[in-house]
Automatic annotation (TrEMBL):
<dbReference type="InterPro" id="IPR011671">
    <property type="entry name" value="tRNA_uracil_MeTrfase"/>
</dbReference>
<keyword id="KW-0949">S-adenosyl-L-methionine</keyword>
<dbReference type="GO" id="GO:0005737">
    <property type="term" value="C:cytoplasm"/>
</dbReference>
<dbReference type="GO" id="GO:0141101">
    <property type="term" value="F:tRNA(Ser) (uridine(44)-2'-O-)-methyltransferase activity"/>
</dbReference>
<dbReference type="GO" id="GO:0030488">
    <property type="term" value="P:tRNA methylation"/>
</dbReference>
<protein>
    <recommendedName>
        <fullName>tRNA (uracil-O(2)-)-methyltransferase</fullName>
        <ecNumber>2.1.1.211</ecNumber>
    </recommendedName>
</protein>
<feature type="zinc finger region" description="C3H1-type">
    <location>
        <begin position="263"/>
        <end position="293"/>
    </location>
</feature>
<keyword id="KW-0862">Zinc</keyword>
<keyword id="KW-0808">Transferase</keyword>
<dbReference type="GO" id="GO:0008270">
    <property type="term" value="F:zinc ion binding"/>
</dbReference>
<keyword id="KW-0963">Cytoplasm</keyword>
<keyword id="KW-0489">Methyltransferase</keyword>
<dbReference type="InterPro" id="IPR000571">
    <property type="entry name" value="Znf_CCCH"/>
</dbReference>
<keyword id="KW-0863">Zinc-finger</keyword>
<comment type="function">
    <text>Adenosyl-L-methionine (AdoMet)-dependent tRNA (uracil-O(2)-)-methyltransferase.</text>
</comment>
<keyword id="KW-0479">Metal-binding</keyword>
<feature type="domain" description="C3H1-type">
    <location>
        <begin position="263"/>
        <end position="293"/>
    </location>
</feature>
Length: 296
């Protein structure tokens, strides 16, 4: 829209519209394909011959669009620009957080979640082109995006929550007997109990819950991040038993299997250090280090 001679290349990734997150409107397509079609539509509305290409990059989102030529002569630029303005206005959603409070809205289509501005013509200040504000009220994202997936929480805090939850599961029920499949004997290893996320949260103090509430996913995300210790499935949390994990594929060449096994020993085994019965696996079978001397 900046000039008639402008060309563009775009690699769609995050699902965003002009004023906020993209809202799905079709269920017969995947979310990615639907969003790609929307981005291509933007190019067509802006008067481009839109070409689609697939990049040779190691990503699941590799489809790109290129606009190298226009579908209209330069003399019709003002008409197309008006068409673009109307298209942008039609994409505005009714959400209070994204709607421009300075402009009135009328609900016309309740099923589609769209709304039209009062009056058939776009606001006067939005009909002009370069050098003016195209979207009043637009709020860009912050330059530095806050990480809220529990990854930036202090390590001491995370370790304390993990230990508290693990002790809660281990002490929630009488010790379960479970045969040691590696050695063939009947040594017991406490697997603990399975509790719901709500039950676990009820046993955590208010300060801990308040800290977790500011993170996306909260307690569930923190527990899933610590997949060495926990398994979260269908809202239930239980201690992970590494004896039940599938062994590495034996189809790999011997050299690759050996290198893979060596690469695993980069972290200490939580069970070896904290579990009352120690690790359920012998040192040679455990993917984590039983002591600092095994760290690689």
């Amino acid at each position: 829209r900046s000039s008639y001679s402008c060309c563009y290349f775009v690699l769609p990734c995050c699902f965003f519209d002009f004023h906020g997150k993209y809202s799905r409107r079709q269920c017969k397509k995947t979310q990615y394909r639907e969003y790609l079609d929307f981005v291509a539509q933007v190019g067509f509305v802006c008067g481009f011959h839109v070409e689609e290409d697939c990049l040779r990059i190691p990503s699941t989102k590799r489809v790109s669009f290129i606009g190298k030529s226009r579908t209209y002569p330069a003399a019709e630029r003002a008409l197309i620009d008006k068409q673009i303005t109307q298209f942008i206005n039609s994409r505005r959603t009714c959400a209070v957080a994204t709607c421009d409070r300075r402009v009135g809205f009328n609900h016309k289509d309740h099923s589609g979640g769209l709304c039209k501005e009062a009056g058939s013509e776009p606001p006067e200040d939005e009909t002009e082109t370069a050098g003016t504000v195209w979207m009043p009220g637009f709020q860009p994202r912050e330059k530095v995006e806050q990480i809220r997936n529990c990854a930036s929480l202090p390590r001491d805090f995370v370790d304390e929550v993990v230990l508290n939850v693990a002790n809660l599961l281990l002490n929630a029920a009488p010790q379960k007997s479970c045969s040691d499949k590696q050695g063939g004997n009947m040594n017991t290893w406490n697997q603990g109990e399975s509790l719901s996320l709500r039950e676990v949260a009820e046993h955590l103090n208010k300060e801990t819950l308040k800290k977790l509430k500011s993170e996306y996913g909260g307690l569930q995300t923190l527990l899933k991040n610590n997949h060495q210790v926990f398994e979260v499935l269908n809202g239930k949390v239980h201690i992970r038993d590494w004896r039940k994990e599938k062994p590495p594929s034996k189809t790999k060449p011997e050299v690759k299997r050996r290198l893979s096994a060596e690469a695993f020993k980069t972290r200490l085994c939580w069970f070896f250090i904290h579990h009352p019965d120690g690790c359920s696996l012998p040192s040679e079978a455990c993917p984590y280090a039983h002591g600092t001397e095994e760290l690689r």
